[in-house]
Write a structure and sequence with these properties.
- By secondary structure, the protein is α+β, with helices and mostly antiparallel strands.
- The protein has one domain.
- The strands form two sheets. The protein has a two-stranded antiparallel sheet with strand order 1-4. Strands 2-3 form a two-stranded antiparallel sheet.
- Strand 2 and strand 3 form a beta hairpin.
- It starts with 8 loop residues before the first strand and ends in a 6-residue tail after the last helix.
Length: 73
């Protein structure tokens, strides 16, 4: 599970999913019972946490612009 909060914080967590007892990779939008790891931008743009937030935003934007569609009522 990946969340972007105000382009400055990214809680992230892994979740294992099993189907018929077999671990399976899936898109998990709920992220229930996931342990989250917190990353946040700080004063130094070169820290791992700052890079993590920036790269997470770039990944999110790439999915948003390629998968998302305008919703029309």
């Amino acid at each position: 599970m990946l969340c972007l909060i105000k382009n400055s914080e990214v809680p992230f967590g892994y979740r294992r999913v099993k189907l018929n007892g077999t671990p399976t990779s899936v898109w998990d939008l709920m992220g229930e019972d996931t342990v989250l790891f917190h990353h946040s931008v700080d004063a130094d743009d070169e820290t791992m946490a700052s890079h993590y937030v920036k790269q997470s935003r770039m990944w999110f934007d790439s999915l948003w612009t390629s998968v998302a569609r305008e919703w029309k009522r």
